Amino acid sequence: MKNGWQQRLQDELAQAWVVIVKDMKVHYLRPGMIMFGFMMPFFMFFSFSVRREMGAAQGVARLLALTTFFTAAAAGPFIIPLERRLGTYDRLLAAPMSLLTLLLGKAAVGALFAIGVSVFSLLVGVVAFGATIAQPWLLVSGVVLGSFSFSALGLIFGSIPTRNPGDVQMPSTLLRWGLLFISGTFIPLTEMAPAARAVAYLSPLTYAQDLMNHAVLGMGLLSPWLDLLVLLVSGILFMVPPVWMHRWARQLGY
Amino acid sequence: MSNLDHAIEVNDLTKIYGQADSGVLAVDHINFAVRQGEVFGFLGPNGAGKTTTQRMLTTLLEPTEGRIVILGHDLAREPYPVKRQMGLVPEESNVYTELTAWDNLMFTAQLYRVPRAERAERARQLLETFGLWEKRSVKVENFSKGMRRRLSIAMAIIHRPSLLFLDEPTPGLDVQSARAIRDLIRQLNAEGTTIFLTTHQIEEANQLCDRVAIINHGHIAATDTPERLKATFRRVQSVEVALEPPEGLEPSGGWGEALTALPGVTTAVKMGDKWRLYTEDPSALLPQVMDYARANKLKVISLSTLGPSLEDVFLELTGQQVGTVRHETQDDRPRRGMKGRMGGGR
Ligand SMILES: Nc1ncnc2c1ncn2[C@@H]1O[C@H](COP(=O)(O)OP(=O)(O)OP(=O)(O)O)[C@@H](O)[C@H]1O
Ligand SMILES: [Mg+2]
Fold this sequence. Notes:
Largest sheet of chain B: 6 strands, mixed
Number of strands of chain B: 15
Order of helices and strands of chain A: HHHHHHHHHHH
Number of domains of chain A: 1
Oligomer: heterodimer
Radius of gyration of chain B: 24 Å
Number of strands of chain A: 0
Bound molecules: adenosine-5'-triphosphate, magnesium ion
Mean pLDDT of chain B: 87
């Protein structure tokens, strides 16, 4: 007989997994998900990249940063309000599992979508354009950690007490574009004016891009360890507002 | 401190949506207890605060004030053991329409940690009981409202809860589906499940419940057996009538007051061009109204008998004047009527 907390931990992990699998089955084909999750990163990539002369590897690094960022952050803002509207979110809230388990499950859904799209972009880059990967393990940990962190960011918007995904899409899209344009994704950090670079350090995407540069091109501006640490810490911090907002929603009656 | 015979104990439970001073007071310091093994009815008209109460009891909504003890646990401090033992059927059937009936059941079974070896067997039994076995592989988006409701009940009981909450399980369903669901509630109760049933149908509460709490505007007016509440229900039946003098004659307003004096009328209320006459025995009053009309050469424009309305039951129970509030729930109640023009005069 296992002691209480071990059993509980095992239960919670299993429940998080059940939520993840269910969400993947239920939501992956929704128009909102395809539009904001799958099309957007490629759209962004091509509209800002085709004009410039750019090597395949550099393109892959940029595309990976974009896919992790956009796909991961797209799921949260859209799945939870939709489930609130359909009433199915109550099922998860009433179930015998902790709020943290539920939120980690939801964050993992966005992250897994993003990892899926990233693998696809990577295959295209490697197979079709012959890009080579300098540090595969850095790539794996960067994609995984970046996806989780950005998914948690999306979860902040998903936790806004509303039953209308449209209410959340707007602010979350604005923030994502803001973070994208101040980041070092389209203009390399080295080419930025000092003031712009200082601003770029505020965007987690900057670190994801730097990390991808290390992983694919084998060179970056910051230390890859710093990049990983920033993504990890920001991911953990992004989980805090959703917890508060869920408590708030429970008072408001959403 | 808490009574072990009680599945649920509620003390001074209050919910204000929004700010304490400007918000909506949906539930106002209610107190009740649900005994182990009973079917407890929570009966009230639209907007009474039923769903609000049920959502607080199921941890979905944070109370503004008050204490809830379920199965011996203070819900605010120990929700986990309570959540494991309760099942929840909400107002809207919240099934996953993208999944099949089978996958919906499997998902809930896994979420509630039903042992792997038992999941499939329980799901099969439930689908058979609910008449959904043939449709187990069909996506729920193709299910009718009644099928969805049955599935959502099956999902709520696959982990064998000892306490089941149902929020208005039958409205909008055809007679057979509603009856099937009521039978099922009885059967679950016979097997030992305590049932908390929210409804706005007096008949449903009468048929199913051991005890009923009557709630309106966030207050509980009475908690008693349906048998003992029946006297109250009877007192607030009524006959609604509109009379008119034959063509060419001036309308004389006096007929309403005259009807009020008929034997058996307890209270009368004027409602627009109609009068509502409260009586314990509508069938005895009807012929008297017809006789009066005939004797005074008045035409019967409309005449109908009304079953008890929850609004009136509530007013009667709280010692207020019946018939003084008119709400949209009115049309939910049984109305046996002879509407339209009927010759009453000669
Ligand atoms: N989330 C909310 N925010 C603000 N007010 C609310 C909210 N939910 C319910 N109310 C209000 O609280 C009151 C009680 O509502 P509740 O849904 O509990 O009634 P009910 O008895 O379940 O009614 P019905 O029979 O229509 O389901 C109503 O006045 C309603 O407008
Ligand atoms: Mg309700």
